[in-house]
Amino acid sequence: MESFLEFEKPVAELEGKIKELRHMVDDGDMDIAEEVTKLQNRADKLLEETYASLSPWQKTMVARHLDRPHFSHYVTNLIEDFSPLAGDRTYGDDLAVVGGPGRFRGRSVMVIGHEKGSGTEGRVKHNFGMAHPEGYRKAVRLMEMADHFSLPIITLVDTQGAYPGVQAEQRGQAEAIARAVETGLNVSVPVISVIVGEGGSGGAVALAIANKILMLEHSVYSVISPEGCAAILWRSSEKAETAADALKLTAQDLLQLKVIDQIIIEPTGGAQRRPSETVQRVGDAVAVALEDLESTPDADFRALRREKFLEMGKVGLT
User: pLDDT digit string (tens) for 235-277?
Assistant: First the structure.
C-alpha cells in the first residue's frame, strides 16, 4: 500500500477517488472511464507541481521515505557477483555498513554503503543505517583492499548519522570516522559516491570522500540533521523546518556550493514511487562518471580528490 507524506494529502485524496472509480469500471461501468482519465491527469499534474516546489524540510521527509530504494536494491539490480565481506578484523561486523567486490556493467569494483533495512525487523537488524565504529572500520578495510587490487570504489550514502550511543563512543566512533575520511583521501583509485537518501553528519562524510559526488534530486546532505540543529540553536525540535531552510542541505543548494558534482533527476513524485527506474538512473549516472574518471590519462585520483575538498572551503571567500 502506497504511503503518502503530509504535504501529499491533496494527491492522496485524488488517488483515493481514482481507485474507487476504477473499481466501478472493473465492475463493468464504462461510462465513468473518461472521468477516471481526467482525474488521473489532474493527479499527475498536481504531483508534478508539488515536487517541483518542495521546501528543504519537505525534501528531508522525501529523503527519509521508507519506500525509497536502499543499498540492497542498488546492489541487487546493478552489481553482478557481489560478495559481501564481513567484519572489521578488530571488534565485529556492523550491518549498518555493507560492502564487498562485484562487477558493475562488466567492470570489477568495490561497493560500500549504508543499509537502513526494510520492515521493522530489517531496520532493527541494520540499526536504521546508523553505523558503529566497526562499520566505519570495515569500510576502511574494504577501501584499502580496493586500493591494493586497483578496484574503483562506489559508495552509496544513506544515513541519518553515525550511531550516537555510549558504546559507540567507548569503541572510538570519532576516530573510526576520521580514519575512514583519511583513507578516502589516501586511496589512489577513483572513488564515486552517491547520496541516495539522507547524508547526515560525519556518518555520511566517512563514505563520501570521492572524486565525483552525485546526489539524487530529493536527497539531503548536511553537517547535522534539521532536528539536531534546532535542538542546539533553539532548544526545540519544532524549529526543524527553519533549520532545514538554513542548512542548505538540498541537492540544488549543494550543487551551487560545489559540494556535489551532479544531480540525478528522480521520477516524478520521488524515488519511492518508481524505485526500479531510480536504481537504473543511478546506475547510468555512475557509469558515465566512472568512464569520465578512467578516461583521464595518467590521472592522479588522490591528488585530484584532495584538491576537490580543499576547494570547497574557498566558496564565498574573497
Answer: 988 899 999 999 999 999 999 999 999 999 999 999 999 999 9
Q: Locate the DSSP E strands across the chain.
A: 79-80, 97-104, 107-114, 153-159, 191-200, 212-216, 220-222, 262-264
Q: Rounded to whole angstroms, how far apart are CA atoms 262 and 172?
A: 33
At 96, list the grid cell: 549498518
Considering only CA atoms, which of 222, 208, 199 is closest in space to residue 143?
A: 208
Q: Which three cell numbers stand for residue 109?
A: 569494483
Question: Which triple of cell numbers denotes residue 13?
Answer: 485524496
DSSP character for 272? Answer: T
117 vs 2, 110, 254, CA distance in Å?
18, 20, 27
> How many angstroms separate the CA atoms of 149 and 164, rounded?
34
Specify the pTM. Answer: 0.90
